[in-house]
Amino acid sequence: MHKGIKLVLFLALFTFLSGCEDMIEVERESFVIAVGIDRTNQDGIYLFTFQIANPNIANSMMGNGGSEPDEIISILGSDIMTAKDKADTIVTKKISLDHTVVFVISEELARSGDFLRVIQPTSRTTHMRHDIQIIVSKERAELFLNNNHPSLDQKPYKYFQYKITQTRQTGIIPDADLHRFLQITEGDADLFLAIYATTQHQQVEEEEKSEDQYIAGELLQKGGNDTQFMGSAVFKEGTMIDILTGQETRIANLLDKSVPLSDVLVTYLDPISPEFFISGNYIQRKEPEIKIDYNTKQNHATINITVPFEFEILAIPSLTNYAKSSENKQILEKHLVEVNTTLAKNFIEKTQKKYRSDPFYWSIYIRKYFKDIPSYEEADWHNNIYPNAEINIEYKLKRLQFGKTLTDTNLDKVRD
After folding, report:
1. pTM
2. What is the pLDDT of residue 406?
C-alpha cells in the first residue's frame, strides 16, 4: 500500500518537473537591455545593435572595477530574431531578449515606412515584453548606443529604466511602449508618439524660451552625458511624419486620458514683468472632460474639452507681489488660463491641418456612435471626422497656490 502511494507521488512529481526541461541557468544567458535598428543599403536587410548588460556589474560588492558595464555588438539581419540567432555565434552566452528595456530606431528608418515591417515579429514571440519603450534617435541607432555613456550609473539596464520614468513624469516625453504602438497603428485612427532622443547637439540661437520649447539636441549643455531625451516623434500609420517639442508633447499627454500624468513643472512668462518667467507645478488632479457630439448624416463631430487644473507657484524672479495683491492675483489667474488655452488651441489646430489626425486617443470616444467596425472605418476618423471637427477647449483654474511663503524679498529695501 505504501509502495503504491510512493509510486503515485513520484509520478506526480515527475509530471511537474517535466515543465523545467527547457530551463536555462541565469549565468548561461546574456541579457540584452537595448536593441538598435538601422537601415542599410540592402533592401530588407537591417543593422541590429545589441547592448548586452554585464551581470557582474549588478553586484557592486564583487569588486569588478576593471569590467565594462556592457558589451555592444552590431550584426546584419532581416528581422530581430534572425539577427539574435546570428549574434549568438559571437557572444559566449545565449542571448536573451526577456529583459530588453528599449528599442532605439534611427530617424531615417522611422521615416522610411519600414519600421512596422521590422517590428512586427516582436508581436509573435513570447520572449519579449510588450512594455518595451520605443526611442527614435536623430542619428543612427548604432551611434546612439555607442555614444551613450552615463557617468553616474554603472548599471546600463537601470539607466534607461530610471531615465525614461523620471523624464516621462515631467510630460516632455510620451509613454511609448511597444503594445501601445501596435494598438494605435492597427487601430488606424490616432497618432502614436515615440520618445525622441539624441547624443548629437546642435547650435541654436539663444532666445527666450521656456524650459520645454525644445527638442532633444537643442538644449545648451556643458559636461555630463551627451544623451538628451526631449520631445516626441509623431507616427501616422506606422511611419514617422514629424517631431513635437517638449511643450507640445506635454499638451498631448495632458489631454490624453490614457496617459497617467498629474503633476508637472512648467514655466510661463510673467504677465506683469514679461522679461521674467514664472515657474511652478501644473497640477491636474482630475482627468479632462471630453464630450463628443456626432452627426451621422453629415459625418461631422463637435468636441468639447474641459480641463480643470491647479497651479502652485515655485519661483517669481520678478519678485512681483501676486499673493497679497488681489489685482495682481487676478491678472495672473487670467494669464494662466489664457496661455494654456492658446497653447492647446494652436496645437490642436496643427494636428487637424498638418497631421489630419490626433495624438490624444480621442477616437475611442466616438466609436459608440457606430454599430460595427466597417461603418466606423468608412466614416474615417483620420481623414474626415477629426480634421473637420469643431473643437472647443476650456481651461478652468481651480486653485492658485503660492508655496510655503506668500511674499518674496523686497529688493528695494535690501539694496537700500
Report:
1. 0.86
2. 56
